[in-house]
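Second opinion, please. Pick holes in both lines of this record:
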Amino acid sequence: MLQMPHLPEQCLKKYLDKYPPESFKLPPDVAGRFAPEVEAKLRKTLQMYYAQVTALDDEMGRVVAGLKKWVLMRICLLYISSMPRHRTMTRLTTFAW
């Protein structure tokens, strides 16, 4: 079963390595507002989120490739999330905004 990004924060190193935490630029209303260790944790959270989305995308690519190989001639593939879009990122953090 494929799962959307969520807690617990876990992902393969090959995906985490694609998104160094220091590469994330925080929005102006967040940058400098919190202690450096809180900003570092936020960047790590963003790294995990992006890595998990990339891993999910790769796995969906494998599913589609397998279907193409065997039966995709008349199949419609639909991906549905059970969580409202506006809650996705806020549920990954423990910070009060």
